[in-house]
Amino acid sequence: MSRKPLSAVTGLGMTELRRDYTVASWELAVEAIGMAISDAGLKHHDIDGLLINKSPIEDLSAMPMDLQDYAGLRDLSLLNVVEAEGSSMVQTLQQATMAIQSGLAKKVVCVFADTPLQPGGSAAESFAIAMPMMGKLGTEVANGFYSAIAAYAMAAQRYLAVYNRTTDDLAAVAIANREWARLNPLAKIKKPMTMADHHASPWLVEPLRMLDCAYPVNGAIAVVVSDVETAKAAKEYPAYIYGMGQGHKGNTNRRGYQPEIETGAKMAAQTAFKMAGVTVDDIDACEFYDAFSISTLINLEMYGFCEPGKAAQFIAEEGIGPGEQLPVNTGGGHLSGYYMQGATAVSEAVMQLHNRAEGRQLNTLNNMLVTGYGGRMQFHAALVMGR
Q1: Which helix (DSSP H) or strand (DSSP E) does residue 138 occupy?
Q2: What single string gives the DSSP state of each residue in 23-87?
C-alpha cells in the first residue's frame, strides 16, 4: 500500500503513574514534556507548538497556558488548551497534524496531566462520585444521577436490554484487558481474572461492577508530533498518522434517539478510514478509550468490526486478547492498565508503533485505530496510525 502520512509521533514522555498525590498536574506535565522532547531527539528550542489537554475534573488553573513558560518553551507559533472531554488528547494530535499540514508549526508537543487522587480522598470520591456530568439537567442530580458511572450504567442497561445480552459480555471485555495487562510492565492490575471473579466484584451502579470501571492514576503523558521529513530522520520506527476523524451526535434524550448505544464513533470512523485509504478490514489492532467495559462492546460495533448487538459474539469467535484475531487495548486499557483518559490509548499506540511494547509487542501494525471519547460517549475522535 502506497500512501502519504500526514504527520508522525516522534517522541513519547510518561511520568511515573501513581496511586497517590505527589505534585500538581502542571508539574507532572512539565516533566512529561521534557521527556517527550528528549525522546524525539530534540531540544526545547526546536518545539514550535504546544497543545494542552487538561482533565475535565480540574479547572483551568491546574493546566494553564502559562505551562509554556513553566516548560521552558519560547517563541511558539501554536498554543492552545484543547477542551473536548475525553476525546481531547486524540484531538490534540489531530490539531497538531492540521497545523503541520498548513505550515503553522512543525514540531508540536501534546500533553495531558491529571491528579484525580488527592490527599485524604479515595479514588471514588475524587474521580467517580464527584465528577460532574457536563452541566446536565438538575432533575438528573435530584434523581441520584451523580456521576459518569451512572451515565455508563444507563448505556450498559440499554445495550443489554435491546440486544438481550447479559453481564457475561461485560466480563469478557474486562478479562481480555486483564490478559493484556499481565504482559505490560506499566499496567497497574495484573492478577488473573475469571468470569467468576468478575461476577463476584461488587456493583457500583448496576449493571456495572467494580471490575467494569477504569483504574485512575496520577501522572502525565506527552508526545511530540512532527512533520514527516523530521520523522524520516528518527532513529526508530516512526508512528505515522494517516487518517483522522471526529463524530459528535449529541445527547438530546428525545424520542427516536439512542445516544447511549448509537454514538458518533461511526462518523469518526468513516472520516478517518476514508482519509487513510483503508476499510475496517485493514485495521490490525485497536486502542479504544474504554473507561467502562460497555464502551469496548459499543466501539467494536460503531467502528464497524461487527453488527450492532454482535460484539460479544465477535469477542468469542474472533478474540480481542493476546494472540487473537483483533488485538484491542494491548496494554490493559483503562480497566487494568491505567486511566489517563485519552492519553492511555495514545501512549500504548506509540509504544507499539515505536516497537517498545515490552512483552506484548505486535508484529503487524500497518493500520492501528486509536480512539477517544468524552462525556456520555457524545464526543468522538479517531486516528488511523501505522508504520
Answers
A1: helix 138-142
A2: S-HHHHHHHHHHHHHHHTT--GGG--EEEEEE-TTS-GGGS-TTHHHHTT--S-SEEEE--BTBT
pLDDT for 178 beyond 60: yes
Write the DSSP symbol of residue 1.
Answer: -
The answer to whether residues 83 and 42 touch, using CB atoms and an 8 Å cutoff, is no
Tens-place pLDDT, residues 92-121: 999 999 999 999 999 999 999 999 988 876
Residue type at 161?
Answer: A
Q: Check whether 1 has a pLDDT greater than 60.
A: no
All 3 cell numbers of residue 376?
Answer: 456520555
Residues forming a β-bridge with 285: 368
Question: What's the order of all strands across the beta sheet hosting 7-14?
Answer: 78-81, 49-54, 107-114, 219-226, 7-14, 239-248, 379-386, 368-374, 285-287
Query: What residues have CB less than 8 Å from 317, skipping those under 6 apart?
Result: none
The full length of the chain comes to 387
| Whether 320 contacts 312, CB under 8 Å | no
* Distance between CA atoms of residues 50 and 96, nearest Å: 9
List, for residues 76-97, the tens digit of each pLDDT value: 999 999 999 999 999 999 999 9
End-to-end CA distance of the chain: 12
β-strand partners of 380: 247, 373
| Look-up of cell digits 508522525 | 8
Q: What is the pLDDT of residue 226?
A: 97
What Cα–Cα distance (Å) separates residue 246 from each residue in 16, 112, 242, 249, 364?
A: 30, 19, 14, 10, 26
| pTM, full prediction | 0.95
Place of cell 490490525: 284
Q: Is 43 exposed, middle or buried, given 0-12, 13-18 or 19+ CB atoms closer than 10 A?
A: exposed
Report yes or no: 177 and 333 within 8 Å, Cβ to Cβ: yes
pLDDT exceeds cutoff 60 at 311: yes
Q: Is 145 exposed, middle or buried (0-12, 13-18, 19+ CB in 10 A)?
A: middle
Helix, strand, coil percentages for the chain (3-state, nearest 5): 35, 20, 45
